[in-house]
Every structure is written in structure tokens, then in C-alpha cells.
Amino acid sequence: MAHQTVGQAGLPDDPRAAVTEPSPSCPVEITLAALRGRWTTLLVRELLRGERTFSELRDALPALSDKVLSDRLAQLTEAGVLDRERRSGWPPRTCYRLTPQGRRLGPVLQALWDWGAERL
Amino acid sequence: MAHQTVGQAGLPDDPRAAVTEPSPSCPVEITLAALRGRWTTLLVRELLRGERTFSELRDALPALSDKVLSDRLAQLTEAGVLDRERRSGWPPRTCYRLTPQGRRLGPVLQALWDWGAERL
């Protein structure tokens, strides 16, 4: 594999690739912050498979408490990863679904998966 | 973009893609654990640019304390990301360099960067 250098090969002129200390505006930090916390990546995985109601998410991840599920959904909404949509009808349903930006986490999770899978 | 689903499109039969709670053996968790902590990704960035001595790393990241630098180098060694090599000669030099596995973090950091850069 080519010796790829973040901030050199792909991004020669981006001053953010030259920071000399951790910065919350570093793109890498932004992504890691969006994925931070137990359950977060599993929730994104579920939503990559399709939109889900709160109770569908709870059923898919039964060991996840309602409180943590609510917190994680709020965190991911704040990060621009997902939004919710109220469906009319009876009973009314609220669905959580990835935003276009959230769907672009697919390749990111795949890259994280691929590296970890080679480590095993 | 295609609706990519981790653990479905790419990895149809891998039972690790079906876990219903956080697991340290999940490949995604392994990668996130290797990158965890302040300064870790910046250190990997420096080493993607080439092998470095302790003092070269300190010069590149001047706000990083010796203690944290030592801790992070130990963490990354433990994770299989880097190793050190003693160079003969005078004065003797100890160089830190990425392992082949460590160099494969290049595309991972690039994926993390790309997502965060789109968010700004």
C-alpha cells in the first residue's frame, strides 16, 4: 500500500493538517467526537440499515437503557448525523433516520472496521 | 452515494457485525481504542510522515509533555501501531516508526478527516 500521509498527499494546503496541538476544529476530532461514547457506533449501524423508531432501536439493542438511548440520539442529532420525522397516522410514529451527512458515516465505519478486523 | 451498510454490503456473514452490545472484540472498537486519547491521532500523523526520534516528536508537538508523549508511544506500541528501533552510531538514536499495520491507519485517518471536513 502507498505510504499515505494525511494532510500531505490528499490535502497539501490545508492549514488544519499542520496543527501542533489537539483542536476541536480539526476534522479528525470532529468525526471522533461524533462517534464518541458507548453504543454510538452501534446506533449508527442500526440506522445505516434503515430508519427506526425509538422502540425498534430498543428492540435491536436490548441491553441499551432508554436513558442512554435518548442521550445518544440527542448527541447524534446535535452532530448532524440523524434527524427525526413525525409520521401522521394512528398511532403517530416518530422515526429516526440518518441525514445525508450521517449516511456518509458508512465509509468511515467501514474503514474503522477494516483496520480493526486486520488486527485480530 | 450508495446507502452503505456496515456488516451487510461488505461483510455479509461476519457475526461481529451483528453484536447487540458494545464489545471490545468488535473491529470498530479495536480501531477506536487504538486512536483514543488526546494527541494520539497527531502522533500518528507525524509518524505517517516518516520515522521520528523522541525529541523530533517533541519538537513537532511542543505543547505535548514528555510524560504524555511517553504514555501515547506506549499505547500505540501496545496497539501494534508503532515500534522502535535502536540505531547504532554515536550518539545512539532510538527511532519510532509505524509498523505495516500502523501505516494502514493512513486511510482510516483520511476517512475520519474527510467526514469532519464536510461538516465544517
Cα radius of gyration of chain A in angstroms: 17 Å
* Helix content estimate of chain A: 40-55%
Structural shape of chain A: globular
Widest β-sheet, arrangement of strands of chain A: 1-3-2
Largest sheet features of chain A:
3 strands, antiparallel
By DSSP, the count of extended strands of chain A is 3
Kindly estimate the percentage of residues of chain A that lie in beta strands according to DSSP. 5-15%
Multimer state: homodimer
Helix-strand pattern of chain A: HHEHHEEHH
Separate helix tally of chain A: 6
Largest interface: A-B, 60 and 59 residues
Low-confidence stretches of chain A: 1-10
Structural class of chain A: mainly alpha
Provide structural commentary.
The structure is a homodimer of 120-residue chains. Chain A is mainly α and 120 residues long. Helices cover 48% and strands 12% of the residues of chain A. The first copy, chain A, is built from six helices and three strands, in the order ααβααββαα. A three-stranded antiparallel β-sheet of chain A has the order 1-3-2. The two termini of chain A are 19 Å apart. Chains A and B meet through helix 1, helix 2, helix 5 and helix 6 of A and helix 1, helix 2 and helix 6 of B.
